[in-house]
Amino acid sequence: MIEKFPLSFGNGELLVADYAVFSTSFAEILLRHIPTLKKIEFFAKEESFINSCAEFVEDTLVIENFRALKDGERPHLIYKGYVFLACPAAEGEVVVAVLSGADPLLLQKMSKTWLDEKVELVEREFHLLKQARVDVQTGLLNLANLHSLLDSGSSHNNLLLALVELPPVSTSLKYSMKYTHRCVSLLKTFIRGRSILHYLCHNTFALVLQQGEAKEASTFEASLVAYLKKSACPCVHIGSSTTQLGGEVRTGTEVGLSLLDEAWTALHRASKRGPFSFCEYKRLAFPENQQLAPPEPALGRIIGRWTRRLSSFALVLFSGDNELSVATELIEPFVSEYRKVAVGTELYVLYPTARCRDAENWVEDILTKVADSEKSIHISAGITYYPFADIRKSETPFCCKKALLHASFFGPSSLAVFDQVTLNISGDVYFGDGDFTLAIREYRRGLKCCAGDVNLYNSLGVTLAMMNRTKQADECFRNGLAIEQDNFMALYNIGLSMQSQGQKNEAVEFLGKAFDVRLAEDVEPHFINDLKLQLGILSCETGLYQAAIKHIESWLENEGDSSGAGKVYYYLGLSHFRLGDTRPAIKALERALRFDCFDDRAMSLLGRLYLQEKEGVDIALSLCKKSVELDPDNVEYKMYLAETYMSIGDCEQSRKLLKRCMKRTVIKSYAQLLMGEGYLQESLVTRAEGWFVKVLKQNALEPSVLQRATVGLKYCASSRAKES
Predict the structure, then answer these.
(1) What's the whole-model pTM score?
(2) Which tens digit of pLDDT belongs to each residue from 139-168?
(3) How many Å apart are CA 441 and CA 391, to the nearest integer?
(4) Given CB 3.0 to 4.6 Å as the disulfide criterion, which of 498, 533, 567, 570 pairs with 592?
(5) DSSP state of 294
(6) C-alpha atoms less than 13 angstroms from C-alpha of 369 in its C-beta half-sphere
(7) Any idea which architecture 426-523 has in CATH?
(8) Where are the domains of the chain?
């Protein structure tokens, strides 16, 4: 069987969506051909035209002409100083270009012939521009379009540009192209119209978002990395930059293209951090502005000199909770007898003590005296005791800074002492920044302070898993369970780890336990939702179809419109199919294809069901063919396609496919059954009988296969008896 070449140049047909994607460039083309225009808009629907052009709301004549343009009854119209052009799109659709502000003298001289020529020229240039801006392999916008978009959009939009590198495991052309198409599908599912997606080259994509779509770039990147990792991408690197850098929104013609350089720089840094990592350019450009920017080394040396002869002490960092609260001014009167050093508006104070609670009581007293809620004056403090765990004296200023971040969780006028919880928080900050190496260091240091902290084991395990250090991650989760056997996060995390390693039965066991204890802890709702999702998928994959339907339907109640719903509908359809519930299966699979029209699994199974329910052999054949085109190595798809060919009487084509399917032990018996039924269909009883005998010699046959082979063999025997 000849396999279809995966690249196609297509016919360059314009889609309705193209007039929105390329609106700026299309407008430039029109302006070049029809000068003096001041405004150019494209309308695919009458409602949007009326809403945009208020002067035509009650003008029935222009609305009738707009409809005539949409219906293809006329190519253009000049009316009340406006020029209306009918721009053709695929499947007989028409987009109307409304041009306004043209010079009145030019409008008077416009003839029908002149406009006809211009429309033809413009349409050809629209096609050429699309061909130049679209990648052949993926059908996505390409680097040329990204340059144009950044160049035109940077001066007035607060943009986020993210470069996503998804390198494939194999470098073979066939695998690489298949993997690229899968990545395109995953990214489209994730962004769901929130971003303009581009394909650059070598499995590197560019996402352009309005900053409002991703208020914090690291949050967007972390969720995208987690989504792609869970979707079995072997490696994910993301680098990003925004027009808002250093606290200011940059404008100007060169800013847009500089975003590309900055995102590329961040991507290069991310690629050095591990297989699943991300990096924001602003964290490279302005490290001093980050939450945990380390203090100047000179400060550590100062503290070292002060404490050279001290065996124990407390270092306190006072900081204002807002601009009105300046620690250096407010705290100074209370600490005049102590050694202190100011860093900006913050104040470090050395408190000599050998007892743990002394410094805390002293600081609490100062914070209470300073606080003035009516004037919004509040000071918070971070305290580090020495000696503590393995920290050095020179590290105490940075530890105070981490403790101050810890204190911010308690509200204004709060204090926190540096401990294992502080290190968990600082580790989470590094994790959120994409710096997994520093996060691991913080979590491990926290465990040195308190080896029985389950939260630290969970945090460390998740970070190790993000770096593909699976065995170490599992060990962390098991250590957590040894301390607290019903800890939800430990059960949930080790369940996901088992799932990623293909140990599905073990994953169901751990995730099932997590589901049982979910109400005993204060668990965030998104963890519960994801637990239902993973349990639904795993239950389907392990044959627990009733449980799969229960969990999936529960998940769909909250997340039915989310980016991952398409995949979930496939598993819902598969579960119903395995239980023999054909109508719910068809409904679920149809919804799966509405989310992702390139879901080859849903296509193949839906084609099989359409054939089974006699809902259109042509549609079933088309779906099965397309699934084989999308995944030509999948022998199950070929087997279902062979079954479809057989149903239309093309037994020769069916047999060609079935011969390939017999190489797979899992489906060999079903392929042999179809061979027998095909020969029986052609009244070749002897050959059919031979294949049915082969089927019945197989071990552990499915009941339906056993029944069909037995019936076929009996029919062959009765036919031979009649002949004799």
Answers:
(1) 0.81
(2) 899 999 998 888 775 445 678 899 999 999
(3) 13
(4) 570
(5) P
(6) 13
(7) Alpha Horseshoe (1.25)
(8) 18-133, 143-289, 299-418, 426-523, 599-661, 662-724
